[in-house]
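Bug: token stream looks shifted between consecutive jobs. Job 1:
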Amino acid sequence: MRKIPISLFLFCLFAAAEPLRSELFLNELGASNVLSYRNADGNYEDWIEIHNSGPAAVDLAGWSLSNDAGLGSAWRIPFGRPAETTVPARGFLVLIADGETNLGADHLGFRLAREGGRVTLIGPDGISIADAVTYGRQSADVSYGRHPDGTDDWGFMSPPSPGAANGTGHAGVCAEPVIETAPGFYGGPVAVSIRTGRPDETVRFSLDGEDPDESSSAFTGPLAVSRSCVLRARGFKTGFLPGPIATASYFLNESSALPVASLVIDPDDLYDPDTGIYVHPGSDTDRGHDGRMWERRAFIEYFPDMKAGFRMPGGLRTQGNSSPDSYAKQSYRIHFRDGYGNGRLDYPLFPGDSVESFRNLVLRAGYDDGLDPGEENTRTGTLIRDPLLTELWRRAGQPVSRDRFSNLFLNGA
């Protein structure tokens, strides 16, 4: 009798966990929120928007979010605060990624990385992934989101729309151009060269402090500068958002015995009748023009001895409480933040002082700084009263603020 060999095969079946079937989506995120979104606590922190495409509200209590590809840092949304954790039907919920969980159930136990990362929405079982998104480096006040809401297409958006339907998404953000001719003081006309951030982008420029837009002049070759001006350049490309603005100040046939500080800011941010900080001076809360919502993007350059010192983007506010409406010359405070480019200014600004790192600087006009308290003298101040008393106090061995006289140019004037 012929024996027929029988081969036995053993199959091991592994049950792969399927993604959680959900009507909840990671819909938009802001990982570099500088001035675009002020949350309910009055702060400007990063955020994640959840969209519910379903017909019923969903309480996220027990769900988790993570900013770690390995899910090791997942933050579980607490129970018992449905007003803060419920996503309405066909609606949106904004969660604040600030690491300040003591501020409410809608605050997450982590922050977002501006350089890029991964965000994951995890179901109540702590394992099933409802949604995830990997994002690259983010630009200030530009969000990354689905367009339209809940679809598979992601893009960059400006302005962001936390808590509302997303607008048009863009394929990317243009790169910052490079102004190759050094800013500073020149004895005559100078030819200024600009290099595009990417070869397929168009550079447009302005010479009066305005933010360049689609209607601004295109740079096609070396720019002949024959007068003092502030040059601003920006990249443009179809389907992309305009990129960061490059800035440089040029002073022709001018000299200064004092250091020069050059502030460059879009004129509308100063003089717009509704939103301009020069016509609505701040730091007086009775007028409601105080705080970060009245901070505007600016660029500061500093030239000691008419030579290059430092160059930094920052946020500009008006400074002072003593009736700044009465004076034509305003004081300013400029803040340095990571979202603008660098969170601190590292520069030996005050000779002989050991402090060389600053979060902000005050540019004090000294409009009421006369030695005589008379009304007329407050309008024609000598600018020496406070520096004089401060220096005397310092020589007495007491702690004081440091100061340094400078000439301030505002958009080249």
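Job 2, same session, no restart:
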Amino acid sequence: FDALLHALKETSDPQQRQIIVSTLAAFRDPTILRRSLALVLDPALDVRETFVLLFQGMGERQTEKLPFEFLKDNYDAVVKRFPSGATADYRAFLPLVGRAFCDEPSRLELAALFEDKVKEYVGGPRNYAQVLETIRLCEAHRSSQAADLAEFFSRQ
């Protein structure tokens, strides 16, 4: 991680920088993940490059909530750094930090953070609604399978 971070700060080549940031986003260790999330707030780095780091770790059970927790804790600082406008409102994509959620408490926590804020973002309400729908569908699927899974594992 440290070697990649050093390389990122040393190169100005856009293609190299994209590869390095993508690699930084591939770490799954929670401690390293927190360090890479913090890069979104690093004034020495272009937020348009580090934006992708906000959505890392969501495919792993032990880290899926870290991007949301980071955003919740640093919301104002993150939003200040993001470009916004009619053609590129990065804030509209922030609700996507919850797309790996699959339970009501997490969905309600996401709603508490975004329900009012997304109205200000170009495209925000649509992205927010899609994330909520994804979570509800996951909840429904999990619920519909719960009895069958419990029965299966009781016989093992």
